[in-house]
Amino acid sequence: MSVEIIGVFIPIVGLLVGGAIAIVAIVSDHRQKIAMVKNGMEIPKRKPSSNPLVGFRFGALMVGVAIGIIVGGIIENSGVFSSPEVGYFSSIFLFGGAAQILAILYMNKKLQHKN
Fold first, then answer.
1. Against a cut of 0.70, is the pTM above it?
2. Is the domain of 82 the same as that of 41?
3. Domain residues for 39?
C-alpha cells in the first residue's frame, strides 16, 4: 500500500471508530436506564454544569487558537524556525493556554464580585 492511500484511510478509520464508540456509549446508557425503569428505580436527573462560565472558557480557547494560527502563519512566512510546523504548533499552544489562563482569572474575579 502506498503512503497516500494510508494517509486517506487514517482519518476515515478514526471517524468510524469514534462514531462506533459514541453509539456504543449511547446504547449502553439507554439500556441502563431501561433496566432501572423495569426495576422500579427512578432515573436520576442530570445535574446542570456547576460552573455557568464553561462556555466562556471554551470561547476564550477558540479565540486563542485562532490568534495562534494567525501568528503561526506570520512566523512561518518570516522563516524563524527551520521547520514551518513548529511556528504553528507553538503559537497555538501558547495563545490557547494564555487565553485559558486569562479566562480563569476573569472568571475568578467575576465570581468574587458576585459573592
1. no
2. no
3. 1-46
